[in-house]
Amino acid sequence: MTAAAAIAERANEARMRVGTPAEHISGGAGSLDVRAVELHEAVKRALGSSGPKQPSRGQLDFRPMATVIALRPDTERGREILDQLEQRIHVRPERVVDDGTRRFLLDPNADVDAFNSTLDAIDSDWRSHLTDWRSHLTSWRDN
């Protein structure tokens, strides 16, 4: 299963819980289900369609489409680090969610390691101020 398909599956489950007593809430910080649905919407926009389509036959040729990096500030210093990161790399987040998480959607050929080296240059202890998620989105074609 591709990352995009896994995100779509999780979002479909989450949609059924949003607004019900079964909705997954994170310690008063907001709805994890709403965040799952929002992430799926971002992936769909990145893919430029309603989502990935399963090939019908033949061999699969997987191609990188994008890299999603989500950084959530856990402290005030984390917010400062993210502000400095945006200034240094000249990339704006694709989305900022309610908890302050900034989602960066990068070209598949982008230097993802530049994020780490830039973060290290800003504050070598950045990992204690930010939560970091990364996902590589792929597409496939039927050969």
Describe this protein's structure.
The chain has 143 residues and is α+β, with helices and mostly antiparallel strands. 38% of the residues lie in helices and 24% in strands. The protein contains four helices and four strands, in the order ααβαββαβ. Strand 2 and strand 3 form a beta hairpin. Helix 1 crosses helix 2 (32-47) and helix 3 (76-89) crosses helix 4 (113-122).
Calculate the mean pLDDT score and round it: 75
Strands, count: 4
Q: How big a fraction of the residues is strand?
A: 15-25%
N-to-C span: 18 Å
SSE order in H/E notation?
A: HHEHEEHE
| Residue runs with pLDDT of under 50 for 5 or more positions | none
Overview features:
alpha+beta, four-stranded antiparallel sheet, 4 helices, 143 residues
What does this entry show, briefly?
By secondary structure, the protein is of the alpha+beta class. It is 38% helix and 24% strand.
List strands and helices in order, with pairings.
Layout lengths: L2 H15 L14 H16 L12 E14 L2 H14 L5 E2 L5 E5 L6 H10 L7 E13 L1
Antiparallel strand pairs: 1-3, 1-4, 2-3
